[in-house]
Amino acid sequence: MDKAVRNIKICIIGAGMGGLTCALALAKQGFENIEVYESASNLGFVGAGIQLAPNMARVLDRLGVWKSIEREAVVLRSTSIRQGATDEELAKVDLDYIKETYGYAHSVGHRSNLADSIYQGCRQESNIKFVFSTTVTDVDTLSTKPSFAALQRGRSKPYRVTCDVLLAADGIKSAARVAMLDALKVSTTVQDTGQAAYRIMLTREQMASDPELLDLINSERAVRWIGAKRHIVAYPVQSHEIYNLSTAQPDVNFAAAPSALYTTKGSKPAMLSVFADFCPLAQKMLNLVPEGEVCEWKLRVHQPLPTWVQNSTALVGDACHPTLPHLAQGAAQAIEDAAVLGVVLGRLPDVSPQSINRALRVYETVRKERAETLVELAAASGKALHLGDDNVEAKKTRDAAFAALKNGKGPVPDKWADAEVQKMIYNFDCDKEAIAAFDKAFGEAQHETSELYI
User: Fold this and answer.
1) In the structure, what pLDDT confidence band is assigned to residue 449 with cuts at 50, 70 and 90?
2) What is Dmax (Cα atoms) for the chain?
3) H or E stretch covering 417
4) pLDDT digits over 50-103, tens only?
5) Is 108 within 8 Å of 237 (Cβ atoms)?
6) What does the DSSP assignment read for 34-47?
7) Mean pLDDT calculated for residue range 114-135
8) How many angstroms separate the CA atoms of 167 and 308, rounded?
9) What is the dihedral of CA 402, 300, 259, 138, to 10 degrees?
10) What is the distance between the alpha carbons of residues 292 and 108, in angstroms, rounded to a whole number?
11) Interior CA angle at 166 toward 160 and 171, to 5°?
């Protein structure tokens, strides 16, 4: 890498999965001036379980942080899709083939372990600087030298930060996305999906006295209980010490809330009433949640954006492609974004704004259609899973597809478990795709090597 390229100033807004992975990928490429701005005072990671798909694992392994994540992960060998009301198994899908086919097993883990492992990888890189307790506003994406106002907590006045490249990984509430679209005179708003989610973590100690619950936490399978407009998906994490449950249900509690509100303290009786017609096994687990520890998340998305890039600014992760959780690809797609940005910026021939913009356009070419396709597929999968008696014919068709699976025929209505969908998602090597797209855009003669990282 040319010294001038190595020294360009790259600012990243947000230290979530996308922002952290951006920083690490760029550091591995050899960039020496990387700043990450985060509004939180520290990265005291919290959260629930998360699925660690092969396309995510491939990126993190290349970045040198997968081993620490893998140590605590649980490999899923199968998934069981069941009727919520009866616990009747509609389909069982084998997942053992995934490691042999895609190089990595389909694993599950704790979100905090995933984020902390990436963060610890960043801390090993002296060229990454974290700026905590700092809110970013007044983002200028019009200039070839993007800038923003940074206000540190406890100070009355912000200071201006200017950089060569700005990567906005600041989530669905992204200030950079708003500024970019305003500059382009494009109107787009965050959209309610009509869905919300409970996220629940049960400990082994809580489940130890019940043989049915012990079978779940000791297993190597994910279970999805489905019902009209609702589902529960569950699996063990953290070396089988925690059982993670994530739900989806109609959004009731947020309906009258301010638009800025995304989480709320939930009521245990209200949660139990939502799933009152689910099977006794589901009821047992929900009843173990302590009163006062029920939290509900509002699920929001926005329409596909006309662009993710303006001049030397690019959007990353939920800032440009927030998704419903029904494919378990939200974090994985943000991590793919970061990997591609590392590749295309790492191959810059010079530091001109034209070359930077061109490289960011390659990023958009590689990532935008794929990410938006998966957003649409997640929404469609959720609709199929949540069919009820108000859509009798569609539900019959779905249940017939589940019945055919018992004879080894046909696609899986739960698209996360469908082999063809898995192939589309897991077989995609975003680094290789980025190199091919970059070489097409810039000309192969500029780079004789295809090595991914220095």
Assistant:
1) very low
2) 67
3) none
4) 999 999 999 999 999 999 999 999 999 999 999 999 999 999 999 999 999 999
5) yes
6) EEEE-SSSS-----
7) 97
8) 10
9) 180
10) 26
11) 100
Q: Where are the beta strands (DSSP E) in 14-83?
A: 34-37, 49-52, 74-75, 78-83
In the block, tokens 């009866």 appear at: 86
Paired tokens of 36:
């990450």
User: What's the order of all strands across the beta sheet hosting 34-37?
Assistant: 128-131, 34-37, 10-13, 165-168, 313-315, 309-310
User: In residues, how long is the chain?
Assistant: 454
Q: Can you list the positions of beta strands (E) in 73-164? A: 74-75, 78-83, 89-94, 107-110, 128-131, 134-140, 147-152, 159-162
Which residue in this structure is represented by tokens 């855009």?
Answer: 441
Q: pLDDT tens digits, residue range 214-228?
A: 999 999 999 999 999
Residue with tokens 């070839």: 144
Q: Can you tell me the distance from the alpha carbon of 319 to that of 175, in angstroms, rounded to the nearest whole number?
A: 9
Contact (Cβ atoms closer than 8 angstroms) between residue 358 and residue 344: no
Q: What is the pLDDT of residues 146-181, one digit of tens each?
A: 999 999 999 999 999 999 999 999 999 999 999 999
Chain position carrying tokens 């990532």: 367
Tokens of 232: 């529960």
Return phi, psi of residue 83, to 5°. Answer: -65, 130
- Output the pTM of the full model: 0.93
Under 8 Å between Cβ of 453 and 28: yes
Percentage of residues in the chain having pLDDT higher than 70: 95
Look over the chain and give the mean of its residue pLDDT values, rounded to a whole number: 92
Would you say 298 and 261 are in contact if contact means Cβ atoms under 8 Å apart? yes
